[in-house]
Amino acid sequence: MPSPRFSTYFLTHGGGPWPYMNDPFRSMFTQLEASLVELRERLPERPRAVLVVTGHWESPEFAVSTGAKPGMVYDYSGFPEFTYHIKYEAPGSPEIAARVLELLKAGGLASHGDETRGFDHGTFSMLKPIYPDADVPVVQLSINASYDPEVHLKAGRLLAPLRDEGVLLIGSGSSYHNLGLWNARGAVPSKMFDDWLQETLVRMPPEERSARLTRWTSAPAARLAQPREDHLVPMMVAVGAAEGEAGSCIYHEDNFAGAISLSSFRFGGQE
C-alpha cells in the first residue's frame, strides 16, 4: 500500500535549545510546543524520515547532510553550560540524502553532500517536541546563500516527490526574526508582516501564492520583520513542494515575549 502524501510545513522553531530547559525561558514556548506535539499527532503515519530545510545552514549551493550518525552544532550563545552538551541522537539517512541530491541535480540545481554536518538548533529544537525519542531519521538541507525566493521555490518543486515517498518536509525558521527588535518595538512590524503572511499563505489562492512570495520585500514591514531572510526562505521550499495546494496556519500568537506576533504554517496533504 503506498504511503499517504504528507503535508509540508514552515515552522517557527523558537530560540536556542529551549525544549531542553526547565525555567521561565522554556515557559515562553508553551503554545509553540503544543503546536509541534499536535503536528505529530495529526500526521497520517510515521514518516520514513524528516527532511529539514534549516535557516541555520547556508551554502553557496544547496548542501545535504549525508552522515549516518550526525553530531551536534551548538549555534547559539549565552545559554547555560549544559546546553552545549545536549544530544539529539536521531540517525541520519544516507539513502534519503542521496534521493534529495538526485532530485535537485536532475532539476538543474547545484548541490552537494556533507557527511560531517551535525544537527543545528533550527533542526533539533523543533524536532525535540515532535519526536522526543529521536527515533525518526533526519536529513538536513541547507538554504542557498543567494536567498533567492525563486531558487528555493524551485527546490521545493523538485523535492515534491518525497512527499509520496514517506518523507516529511519541514522548512525551519521564524515568521519574524529581528533580534534587535525582539521587544515592544517589534510588536507593530511583526504584526504587520504576520498579517501579510496570513493573507498570502492562507487566504490567497494557491496559484497566486508563489508570485507574491517572490515579491515578499514589498510586504508591509518586510525588512523590519526579516532584516536578513535566512529564517524566511526555508518557507519557500515548503511552499514549492506543495504548490497549488491550500495553506493553513497551525500556530499563532500575538503576544510572544509580551509583544511579538509569530506563526507556523502547513501546506497541502491529507491530515
Q: SSE order, as H and E?
A: EHHEEHEHEHEHHHHEE
- The whole-number mean of residue pLDDT values reads 96
Cross-sheet strand order for the largest sheet: 5-2-6-1-8-7
Tell me the strand percentage band. Answer: 15-25%
**What is the fold named in CATH at topology level?**
Protocatechuate 4,5-dioxygenase, Chain B
CATH architect. name? 3-Layer(aba) Sandwich
Poorly predicted ranges (pLDDT <50, ≥5 residues)? none
Secondary structure class reads: alpha/beta
* Number of structural domains: 1
What CATH first level would be assigned?
Alpha Beta
| Number of helices, where a helix is a run of at least 4 consecutive DSSP H or I residues | 9
Largest sheet: 6 strands, mixed
User: What is the 3D form?
Assistant: globular
Which superfamily, in CATH terms, is the homologous superfamily? LigB-like
Report the helical percentage: 25-40%
What's the N-to-C terminus distance? Answer: 18 Å
Whole-angstrom Rg: 17 Å
| DSSP strand tally | 8
Describe this structure in words.
The chain has 271 residues and is α/β, with parallel strands linked by helices. It has one domain: Protocatechuate 4,5-dioxygenase, Chain B (3-Layer(aba) Sandwich). Helices cover 33% and strands 21% of the residues. It has 9 helices and 8 strands. Helix 3 links the parallel strand 3 and strand 4. The protein starts with 7 loop residues before the first strand and ends with a strand.
Topology:
Layout: E1 8-12, H1 24-27, H2 30-42, E2 49-59, E3 62-65, H3 94-106, E4 111-114, H4 121-130, E5 138-144, H5 149-159, E6 167-173, H6 187-203, H7 206-214, H8 222-225, H9 233-240, E7 247-256, E8 260-267
Parallel strand pairs: 1-6, 2-5, 2-6, 3-4
Antiparallel strand pairs: 1-8, 7-8
